[in-house]
Specification:
By secondary structure, the chain is an alpha/beta fold. The protein has 2 domains: about 170 residues, NAD(P)-binding Rossmann-like Domain (Rossmann fold, 3-Layer(aba) Sandwich), CATH 3.40.50.720; about 90 residues, ProC C-terminal domain-like fold. The protein is about 50% helix and about 15% strand. The chain is built from 12 helices and 10 strands. It is elongated.
């Protein structure tokens, strides 16, 4: 995660306050972040909008009670984050297009929706940047991929990078790589959780209670991840360090290597990439 002490960002509109939208909002509301001009948030229900009552610097609008909510939110905003469901994006862009000021940066947080789609529905005076954050944004540990559009400048991309660094780290890639990135960091938390499930089941099978198994496995994954970051060593170096010659870990690793995990993960991520292309094609 970024260690920048203070971040100043211009006015922001966040269209769609689902789990990812709220995770990003949490980063923007951190003490070390100043959003000059404030944050405007839209979602469907008035009840959800009311949850932001009393949140300093945030003005919330509900589309069910205010048909102009999205247009009101983006008016005067320097950055507009589009975090609605992918199927809703084209109609939303058509709705806000005339309300966007020249020079506005519109950021896609909608999986599978291309820069070309955004640019086709928005004025030429508006820049587009596509992003792919992942769910650890909720705890400030996201890895977010960002890709420039055809009308975005280096300064636009730098601003979007600073925004997403409020919830983790940022990797800049061309859009042609963004779907592949989504199969690694975007879907990656699910792969880790699946491994945790499998190890937990193995622990229970060996006689530990569900609570003990969770403590053993969750703690091991968390500790190993922190060790990887803190040590500065590669995963290979750390694996060798744990694997004593002719010991128990070496025997277990041999079984896992026989399963050819690299090939398995290649097949899995290839399947995810195929699906991402299908979704992008509509």
């Amino acid at each position: 995660m970024s260690t920048v002490e203070s971040t100043r960002l211009p006015s922001i509109a966040l269209l769609g306050a689902g789990s990812m939208g709220r995770a990003i909002l949490g980063g923007l509301l951190a003490d070390a972040v100043e959003v000059t001009g404030g944050i405007r948030v839209t979602n469907r229900s008035a009840e959800r909008a009311a949850e932001f009552d009393g949140t300093d610097g945030v003005t919330a609008f509900a589309t069910e009670s205010d048909p102009d909510a999205n247009r009101r939110a983006v008016a005067g905003a320097a950055v507009v984050l589009v975090a609605v469901k992918p199927a809703m994006v084209p109609d939303l862009l058509d709705d806000i297009a005339e309300a966007l000021e020249p020079g506005t940066i519109v950021v896609s947080v909608a999986a599978g929706v291309t820069v070309a789609t955004f640019e086709a529905h928005l004025p030429e005076t508006v820049a587009v940047v596509r992003s792919m954050p992942n769910t650890p944004a909720i705890v400030g540990r996201a890895v977010t991929g960002v890709s420039p559009g055809t009308r975005s400048s280096d300064a636009d991309l730098a601003l979007v990078r600073a925004l997403f660094e409020t919830v983790g780290t940022v990797v800049e890639v061309p859009e042609s790589q963004l779907d592949a990135l989504s199969t690694i960091s975007g879907s990656g938390p699910a792969y880790v959780f699946l491994l945790i499930e499998a190890m937990t089941a193995a622990a229970v099978e060996k006689g530990f209670t569900a609570e003990q198994a969770a403590e053993l496995v969750n703690g091991t994954f968390a500790g190993a991840s922190e060790l990887l970051v803190a040590s500065g060593k590669t995963p290979t170096e750390l694996r060798i360090q744990v694997t004593s010659p002719k010991g128990t870990t070496e025997r277990a690793i041999a079984v896992l290597q026989d399963a050819d995990l690299p090939a398995l993960f290649t097949r899995a991520t290839d399947a995810a990439l195929t699906r991402a292309k299908e979704l992008a094609a509509g």
